[in-house]
Amino acid sequence: MNASKSSQIGDTGPICSPIYEFGQFRLDRDNRLLQRGEETIALTPKAFDVLVFLLERQGRLVTKDELMKAVWPETFVCESNLTQTIFMLRKALGESASEQRLIVTVPGRGYRLATAVRILNSPADGPTNPKGIVNGGNGAAHWKVWAVAVLATAIVFTVLFRASSPLPSPKIQRATQMPVSVGADPWQHLVSDGSRIFFLERQGDRSYLMETPIAGGETRRIAKPFPGTHIFDITRDNSEFLIGEFETRTSPEALWIWPVKGGAPVRVGQTFATHATWTPDGQEILYVNGQDIRRVHRDGTDDRLFLHTTGYPDWIRFSPNGAGIRFTLFDLNTDVVEIWEAESNGHNAHPIKLTGDRHECCGNWTDDGRYFLYTAYTNNIANLWAVRERGTGLHAGAGRPVQLTSGANALFQATPVLGGKRMFSFVQEAAHELARYDLQTHQFTAILPGKQVATMAFDPGGHRVAYHLYPDGSLWVSRSDGSEAIEVVTPPNTGGNPRWSPDGERIAFEGRKPGQPIRALVVRANGGPIEDVLPGRSGPQSLPTWSPDGKSLAVALNVFATDAAPDERGIFLVDWQTRQAVKFERSEGLTDPLWSPDGKYFVARSPDNRDILLWVAAAKQWKVIARGKQLAGPVWSGDSKYLYFQDVLETGEPIYRLQMGKAQPERAASCEAVLANGIRRCVLHAITPDGALVLSLFRTGARIHAFELDLP
Q1: What is the DSSP code (8-state) at residue 419?
Q2: Most-buried pick from 172, 221, 393, 600 (CB within 10 A)?
Q3: Could you tell me if 480 and 297 are in contact, meaning their C-beta atoms sit under 8 angstroms apart?
């Protein structure tokens, strides 16, 4: 009798792993090896599992649901994760979605392997078990003694087994098919009063405060006390919100207390905060200002330092028993995002390493304190994790972290409700596209369709484009139609905001190497080594741009690091050959430096995105030439005649252009039409060599999904 895929009880013989041959390829399942001739082809673990699943079914249609259940068992993933895995698998096999020589897409159904498969090794026959021999006893009188002994042994074994064996892993049992929201704004954390979830939605320049029942039901807008209302937290008795009043998203907000059942909000003294949370008794508030966590009474009195940090804290949560806090700390100097904990008086603050990844954030305890749910980033993708806190009885120790979700879409900010039986979370899908907008015809044309482009730039001749892909952070160069693409920055390195050198030979970009903060880097347009613009300089470096003669670059250094030394913060002019750097005077905190193509003008943007400033060389000072609520851009026209920018918090998200030498900008375009037709955000991104605008069109915001949890 042939053995099945897994050995049967009592089998003692080995089981050979099948080796599959298809086309030019050979796959060894057990050794997880894919080869083309003598070449070994690298596959991600999930791509390998998908390929094995298709090979084992040899030409049969495999539905998307089958694949997702087989490859991601007991883990929530979106369908787009499977799509991304198929894309990477096809890429490794040397085919595109349009060719489909090996893997055929059956629209609306799933996938099928469209090539003959040869199995070289079949499972070996396992030996049959010999029949057991039962010896007779010497007398029936002994059976009771043996029975008692066996029973006692079983009881002892059971107790010892339960004491030594781990609990079942926490897992997601089910996810809602329909999201609670498709336009959520993750800038506000999810907040619950036990029966509802509160969140923000964004449509163009407008923000709406929303609520939805946690048990399921209609999502609706609720009245808010201010045009910009941001809920930070709610008291444990669910009677009062802690809210911020905002106009922009880059400045501390006025802090208010607002009754949940309605009524006028009450100001918390003169307190301004970027984040805030109630203490367990509802009488005091922990709030963040800069790098400090401070403590203040609810009436604004007795404001004092609680904890000074080395980064920028957020997401403060008190433990259910009130004994301590955990918070997320963003360290701009090391590019590390960590979860820290401290005692309830602010003492003994230290980071906690849960999964060991460089980026962990956004944690929440379940109401009973048994589990801590948080977000961890791996290869630039966020997923949800759970760890059991220290308990009592047989399982007194803390558990190991368990990954709850897996996939290509970011899942973050887990918010448990109903005692941990249900969880809400943001799911960020890449649902945006780049479009060319002709200022004369007012027509939109897709740019690089089918690619999730985060940032891009045309070369000086307009024939090539450099683009940065979401979510893996890779940087590519291709012809303007997307053909002849080559990858010039590969993960785990990342490359964004590319800028071409005037001769089209090099690309400056801001990127990350593993273990380093964001850096100003340069790579050749045909690939090769990545070079530092400012080697030896510490702190974040951003948005490098070439001078018109190609001999220098301007780089913003330590934009938000207010504690950096003055000579290490500002905009620096760097000689490309010698790497010698000279600082622009009074440029501390300025960012996004940009020359006009003719070299006559040099501009930068304020760190709060409210001002665009012009460098006046004769006076050696900066002059504000544009002001708004939150400015996107700036970008220059090819003839240096106009500087374009956008106010994304103004009605219709208008785009302006300023002619140098004139005092007032003029409106060049508006996003009102597209915002009225399903687009949620429309952001100025770049300008084409022939003067058309490049816009990023966002069709959805973040989604909010509900998940049923099993937390043993």
Answers
A1: G
A2: 172
A3: no
Q: Calculate helix-pair angle for 45-57, 79-93, nearest 10 degrees.
A: 80
Tell me how far apart the alpha carbons of residues 454 and 679 are, in angstroms, rounded to a whole number.
17
Kindly provide the residue ranges of all beta strands, DSSP E only, lying in 399-533, ordered along the sequence: 402-403, 410-417, 422-428, 432-437, 444-447, 453-458, 464-469, 475-479, 486-489, 494-500, 506-512, 519-524, 531-532
Q: How high is the pLDDT of residue 565? A: 84
**Total-model pTM:** 0.72
- Mind listing the domains of the chain with CATH numbers? 19-119 (1.10.10.10), 223-352 (2.130.10.10), 447-595 (2.120.10.30)
The answer to whether residue 39 scores a pLDDT higher than 80 is yes
If we measure between CA atoms, which residue out of 268, 232, 272 comes closest to residue 252? 272
Strand ranges in 366-401 using DSSP code E only, listed in sequence order: 371-378, 381-388
pLDDT tens-digit map of 649-668:
888 999 999 998 888 999 99
> Whole-angstrom Cα distance, residue 335 to residue 377?
13
What CA–CA distance (Å, rounded) separates 378 from 491?
11
Confidence of residue 708 (pLDDT cuts 50, 70, 90): very high
Helix (H, G, I), strand (E, B) or coil at 151: helix
Q: 578: how many CB neighbours lie within 10 A of its CB? A: 7
35-39, 663-667, 699-703: the lowest-pLDDT one: 699-703
Integer Cα distance of 346 and 338 in angstroms: 17
8-state DSSP, 139? -
Stretch 150-166: mean pLDDT? 50
User: Residue 87's closest CA among 78, 95, 79, 75?
Assistant: 95
Task: Compute the distance between CA of residue 451 and CA of residue 470 in angstroms, rounded to an integer.
Answer: 9
Structural tokens at position 157: 């074994």
**What tokens appear for 256 in the block?**
């208010």
Q: pLDDT band for 76, please (50, 70, 90 cuts).
A: low
**Which of 119-123, 156-160, 245-249, 626-630 shows the lowest mean pLDDT across its residues?**
156-160
List pLDDT tens digits, range 159-180.
444 445 556 888 888 887 678 8
Contacts 24+ apart (CB under 8 A), 395-402: 395/166, 395/167, 399/166, 399/167, 401/354, 401/355, 401/376, 402/169, 402/170, 402/171
pLDDT at 53: 93
Contacts of residues 199-205 at CB distance under 8 Å and 24 or more positions apart, as own/partner, are 199/704, 200/230, 201/701, 202/680, 202/681, 202/701, 203/675, 203/680, 204/651, 204/652, 204/653, 204/671, 204/675, 204/680, 204/681, 204/682, 205/648, 205/649, 205/650, 205/651, 205/652, 205/653
Q: What residue type is 463 in one-letter code?
A: H
CB 388 within 8 A of CB 370: yes
> Which tokens hold the place of 401?
């972290």
Q: How many CB atoms lie within 10 A of CB 627?
A: 13
**Interatomic CA distance for residues 232 and 288, integer angstroms:** 11
Residue 15: pLDDT over 70: no
Q: Give 506-526 pLDDT, tens digit per residue.
A: 999 999 876 678 899 999 999
Evaluate if residue 139 carries a pLDDT over 60: no
Average pLDDT over residues 598-612: 94
| 355 φ/ψ angles, rounded to the nearest 5 degrees | -95, -15
Burial letters 349-380, b for 16+ CB under 10 A, else e: beeeebbebbbbbbbbbbeeebbbbbbbbeeb
CB atoms within 10 A of CB 339: 22
